[in-house]
Amino acid sequence: xxxxGRDDARGRRIRLGMVGGGQGAFIGAVHRMAARIDDRxxxxxxxxxxxxxxxKASAAExxxxxxxxxxxxxxxxxxxxxxxxxxxxxxxxxxxxMHYPVARTFLEAGYHVICDKPVTTTLADAKDLAEIVRRSxxxxxxxHNYTGYPMIxxxxxxxxxxxxxxxxxxxxxxxQDFLATKVEDAGSxxxxxxxxxxxxxxxxxxxxxxxxxxxxxxxxxxxxxxxxACELTSFGEGRSLDDNAQMxxxxxxxxxxxxxxxxxxxxxxxxxxxxxxxxxxxxxxxLTWQQEEPNRLWFTRLGEPKQLLTRGGAGANAAAGxxxxxxxxxxxxxxxxxxxxxxxxxxxxxxxxxxRAPPEGLGTVTIEDGVTGMAFIEACVRSAxxxxxxxxx
Amino acid sequence: xxxxGRDDARGRRIRLGMVGGGQGAFIGAVHRMAARIDDRxxxxxxxxxxxxxxxKASAAExxxxxxxxxxxxxxxxxxxxxxxxxxxxxxxxxxxxMHYPVARTFLEAGYHVICDKPVTTTLADAKDLAEIVRRSxxxxxxxHNYTGYPMIxxxxxxxxxxxxxxxxxxxxxxxQDFLATKVEDAGSxxxxxxxxxxxxxxxxxxxxxxxxxxxxxxxxxxxxxxxxACELTSFGEGRSLDDNAQMxxxxxxxxxxxxxxxxxxxxxxxxxxxxxxxxxxxxxxxLTWQQEEPNRLWFTRLGEPKQLLTRGGAGANAAAGxxxxxxxxxxxxxxxxxxxxxxxxxxxxxxxxxxRAPPEGLGTVTIEDGVTGMAFIEACVRSAxxxxxxxxx
Amino acid sequence: xxxxGRDDARGRRIRLGMVGGGQGAFIGAVHRMAARIDDRxxxxxxxxxxxxxxxKASAAExxxxxxxxxxxxxxxxxxxxxxxxxxxxxxxxxxxxMHYPVARTFLEAGYHVICDKPVTTTLADAKDLAEIVRRSxxxxxxxHNYTGYPMIxxxxxxxxxxxxxxxxxxxxxxxQDFLATKVEDAGSxxxxxxxxxxxxxxxxxxxxxxxxxxxxxxxxxxxxxxxxACELTSFGEGRSLDDNAQMxxxxxxxxxxxxxxxxxxxxxxxxxxxxxxxxxxxxxxxLTWQQEEPNRLWFTRLGEPKQLLTRGGAGANAAAGxxxxxxxxxxxxxxxxxxxxxxxxxxxxxxxxxxRAPPEGLGTVTIEDGVTGMAFIEACVRSAxxxxxxxxx
Amino acid sequence: xxxxGRDDARGRRIRLGMVGGGQGAFIGAVHRMAARIDDRxxxxxxxxxxxxxxxKASAAExxxxxxxxxxxxxxxxxxxxxxxxxxxxxxxxxxxxMHYPVARTFLEAGYHVICDKPVTTTLADAKDLAEIVRRSxxxxxxxHNYTGYPMIxxxxxxxxxxxxxxxxxxxxxxxQDFLATKVEDAGSxxxxxxxxxxxxxxxxxxxxxxxxxxxxxxxxxxxxxxxxACELTSFGEGRSLDDNAQMxxxxxxxxxxxxxxxxxxxxxxxxxxxxxxxxxxxxxxxLTWQQEEPNRLWFTRLGEPKQLLTRGGAGANAAAGxxxxxxxxxxxxxxxxxxxxxxxxxxxxxxxxxxRAPPEGLGTVTIEDGVTGMAFIEACVRSAxxxxxxxxx
Lengths: 393, 393, 393, 393
Description:
Four copies of one chain form a homotetramer. Chain A is of the alpha/beta class. The longest helix of chain A is centred in the last third of the chain and has 20 residues, at 334-353. In chain A, helix 1 packs across helix 11 and helix 9 crosses helix 12 (367-385). Helices cover 35% and strands 21% of the residues of chain A. Chain A contains twelve helices and 14 strands. Chain A is globular. The first copy, chain A, folds into two domains: 3-145, Rossmann fold (3-Layer(aba) Sandwich); 149-325 and 366-392, Dihydrodipicolinate Reductase, domain 2 (2-Layer Sandwich). In chain A, the strands form two sheets. In chain A, strands 13-12-11-10-6-9-8-7-14 form a nine-stranded mixed sheet. The C-D interface holds C 168-169, 171, 173, 177, 180-181, 229, 231, 233, 235, 244, 246-248, 250, 257, 260-262, 264, 266, 268-272, 281-288, 298-302, 306, 387-388, 390 and D 168-169, 171, 173, 177, 180-181, 229, 231, 233, 235, 244, 246-248, 250, 257, 260-262, 264, 266, 268-272, 281-288, 298-302, 306, 387-388, 390.
């Protein structure tokens, strides 16, 4: 990655602990691979599972020092403080309901925090955590990993530069077919906590992936959502959380134009694996990006031929180049996008520790974005309960 | 085309007149080419323009007998009755506001009618026209031409056969960038009448192309729309009609499942030429079709690999085959889809004249569909005025 | 079509006869539909089959006057001369071996000829026919229909204008899976004559579709083929003609650069319906086109983003526009491309009859191109017999 | 990665040194990122550049212990032997001409070797090296990294299982536009050595990327190439090595069928970034894969609909699953494919050290494959010099 103009060279390495991510947890392994790619972190401690034996076995599997495999996150927070080589930051990769207590504990103990999304299970908790982050003076990074893709950075910079003119329309969808049947009744651990309000919060699909789509739309366009009119549906019989969400969007005016949009999130969309797509249309140009072909960005100026911009290719801009590792035509994927979140977290942590401003151009998703994300989820739930009434965030 | 098992062989040829479609009118030429492909019609008379000299010049250009080029549609309706070789059917290809009076005149004079969409400019007129059609005993065909594509017939037959299981989700969009700027102020005749409520009716984009998307979704799924929550926007400064429409959809329950959807129609979507896309997702499978690649249909059964079905190809069903002219890999396009509307109109007209049921499998869009389309437009307008309240058709 | 700036208006209509194209013959119906689209021909006579009853039945099916359905092409050539309203041109849509005698007969009788490809079954016959055409003073059109696609015209004009710089590489393939099994033994009439040297000539797949690929590459680039090194294979057991052809190409120098290429034609390519693809690469830019997505042309200038040019779209040039009927995003297909061959044949015939030069920009494939095509087939066969030695055309 | 059923858990970690890969060298950073992803290697020593200061600076940048940054590879080979924690394996990422001497040195000193391709600059050297590998008893891994893509493993397993029937056709191309202009004269270090026979060997593009295409075709189909007829061209003025290669291929008979093919490699293909494509066609089915969309594999059985198989998706087989890290729809890219080469190298090294057979299903490209690759390059050069005569490997 060309962050700061260096190849895969890295400045200070950060000692990292992990909470969650034991055996069978998909996202823990993803965080670890992502953290390794750019070589800015050493994973040296973990509380990988709330089940002690599983924590131990998981730690052994990934080669953690057994002495630094902890039975609880509280213990890790305390014990690592005692070590001269103790962790400096923690990655939180648990189900949603644990994000808040774990993040709070580590922030208050003086650690930097890298946390999976959504940031909490309630808006109140998110606001509370935002206050804790501010008081802590520590770095807080929310891993909305799709923001790490180079062509998303490209799109964002193009919107900011006015290449699209005034934005009129924002269409987003994030659809999967993971929950098309009642897999939670068939032993899927990944499904079980996602459909359980006590672990997921008030939003099902809207919290799990709808927030990604919303975050991405906000990240790329820089627009603020004013209000939404939402329909939440639970197609899976007996599910208490939504597995399909459709909504209309009204954005706040910018330059006299208030953009409109729709957002669709679904986990019953048979035939779709992980289709996260964003279309942004302005007065001068339009663009479309789809996560399953992340190295491509369709871009068309009004009255000109369609362009297919490619990562590393002729039309790539500086914002894309900054987070590009390898040449055009050599596809970067999901893990590389995720790795950028970690590489930038390392930059942010180093700057925070040194009391200086982080390098320009970081794309870090902050606790404030996390609060907005929770406001989004709660607005969806409120609007849906109110028969789709337009609801402000 | 293999209608009735015959190659390009055709039964009785129908003598056709045309109202509208003079010089510079896009859709008139389309109807004429479409009518020729399968050789079931002879265009022998016309009232091609309300401007007499233009009517005459247009008729000369397309080789009409000058004696049968009329200065007004009323005159044509009268005069052709006097001829032994007079027209049997009329094609109405005027701006929207003329559909009703012209259709009424010809139906009441005993002609069959092929009419462009939307059927009228008000729901009341549409209902009135439906009554006139019923009384007339004549064939009435609404040219929602996208229903003529073979892969749309395939998709419809698959939905009807239960290949998708119970339908849960219907997503449709129809987007263009024709009105991204104020082309109506720059001399575009095509734009001028479309943004004028006195010629278009109460719907702008929603009437011009939103109706196509709605009709297509209904045609393919067979579902009835219960209600919608709509946001209409006029991005073009000073436009009185919508140029962008986004809405949520609730369909009526079928087999205990009430499908949900969104529909987006836009004529300010920079970067999109004529993108009409439909995604239907059921409990067992999902499908996606896009008009700019009409010979392809994506189809995925739950838990099986994605299939790309092709017109004429291995997975094509009988409903697609029935309206297929040439082998797989030899693309059929927009005109062929439109030609199918005409070929089936000929079948319907012949059957009507002979007092027999039309052949099974005709996909004709009827006056009742036209009424539903007008109800759709009016519901959109009402919902939008009522700040997006759920509104029944 | 905008030929000569007129909508679907047409000048003089041409009275047409057809030889071949009876029941069950795919290509006859294609020619008829193509001839109708732009309304420049009246099909009024036919010798549709060498089997008299079939000729009669076929004529009835397509509505020919029984008096003008002939039992042999010779009879048609004679009888139509006697009529004041006799045909002016003939379309030859028989198997290959009949092209020469039929074309000769009609040319010598003073008719214009529209002939399917390849023009004859031997190079000697083709040269002979070229002489006959010259002597006759009549129009001769070879229906290499793929040259009729607007984006092919666009590509050709771009090559001619130097948009690609000096051409270095020409890659073409035309692949189908029609003959993957021994369908000729299973009753396929279409297959039977294609694998029979007495009807196809010395080339199997190379003659049937390889000539299309070669013609298209020549048509677009304007380059002359110098020599080729060819491998012909008959994968189908016992087939005497090739069903797969692969070859290296050397083009004649232009501006000091001699382009190189490969060409692959196959009818055993399982998974491919009718994939005719052309890639041309020059010093300044490269382009790619594929027949199954005919409305699109990929074009990339060195060091610039990839462009997807669309028929009727922002980047379409005058050469494409000249043969474009309907707006961007409304797909034209195979029949429309074929129709352009007919529309231009009408232009050529009218100009020939009037003793004037045809309008500029016609893309007609001539008898000389037909001779080159036969030279190509014979060079392939010679090279293959000579173990792939480089062989001049 | 699910190698051996473990998540990102890894067995023994291997201590690794690197030769080459200093500042500005693209492929060195790639090897390092790839080696980190699955956490099986510790890069602890390096001779990163033949220029001492650059070696030192490069080592500092990537955080190597300065004491283990060596001025020459010979020194590293000696010095590391003296350390109890010395390296166990070396990665060779130099220009081609250094592969042989470095590999020889390290093998003879008792290290395992991971070497970039092509294995040497002459066939004689390759054969010599093969003998050295055999004598050494050490693991030797050639990083034909494209073999690491899951869908390539899928395709290989399908060919092996007979899913395609008997293979008839193998088409491969690998095209870039890196050398479209004389960038070697404009300061490109990457270009300079590639066009220099003293560093690249006798093949230019054919050695640099043609070998990848050939290796991939062999890897997937399991077929042995019998002979080829090759045309090499240097379009860049004054280049002594080829920058474009086109050839015909004859494979050895298997089950009575001798497959045919073409291969095109080019580095002047304007508009193409890194397009490595493979099409394999058998009697029962055909498949196509393209490196720029590596998570997809098109597969069509004769007479059935086209399937788009996806990494991790419904149709993925065990061979693909074995090297898959993350779920369907979360794209893996070039680095992940490369990481698989490293992960499997770790498996092979561990097995070699323990004197046991490596786990089943490893896809390691061996020194024997390297010898075949050099035979391929030399056959291309010989055939081209002999005006394209069929030449045996």
